[in-house]
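Office hours follow-up: a student asked to see two folded examples consecutively, so here they are.
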Amino acid sequence: MNIQELAQCAPAINITITAAELKDFATQLIAETKAELEQSISESKAEAYLTGEKVMEMLEISKATLYRWKQRGYLVPIRIGGNDRYRQSDINHILQKGGPK
């Protein structure tokens, strides 16, 4: 059991750890945070912008539903060259979580 699991199972427990164990924990925490940030940055740089037709296909919705979502601010497009485009990350969020960010 690692220190994170122990803290979740017994949050009021007192423990004694060595300086080396504390250093290892801090190093692990920093590495995990760094990996998460790098992934987030990488995803934001690789953002794709989809047409309404592609969004309707991916979400299996009608043109009327897409229009209604746009009007209500549920799925907000950006304008590129006079055309609406939808962020891939917004679509992924809807597919994973069932709603916009």
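And the second, which I mentioned at the end of office hours:
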Amino acid sequence: MARGDLTDAQWARLELLLPRGKKPGRPSIWTRRQLIDGIRWRTRAGTPWRDVPERYGPWGRVYDLFRRWQRDGIWQRIFTQLQAQADAKDLITWDINVDSTICRAPPARRRGEEKGDLHKEPPGGIATEPDDHSLGRSRGGLTTKLHLAVEQGQKPMSIVITAGQRGDSPQFEPVLKAIRVPRIGPAPHPTRPRARG
């Protein structure tokens, strides 16, 4: 197990939330745990998919699992279920912080955007990409802005993605409204939402 990989306890909890195969077949050479650890490694490192270490499986298999589950809404469903479990155990502190950061488009993406090229495969899936999720022009060039709400235990609660030139303040309410934690009984409201200006 490499640094940052899922522990046995984390995997036991996550495995229960994963979709079940529809038909029995030949066991895969690469386990779901390896592929998911590969996805997590790539997300932490921020490298191209081709640079995922071989111990996690072929990079194409790692990317394929990530993309299929993204298109089918499985990652969002897992995230929602983990939030609901944390809320049921009173592990969510309803003091919410909201902040934003800018992600600069890599040079290859900027060239494609300037030439008007489209993705080979449109985003699609269960949630179509809103118009304002594209790149925007700001002082840093072509950028995207991430507006994130977290609770005091640093658990992510919601994210809103806008073009880079969008201001932080107008996104405060949409980020708070995007917090959706399923629960029985009345929904909690952030007790003291805060934002950095």
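Two things to take away from it. The chain has a mean pLDDT of 80. The radius of gyration is 19 Å.
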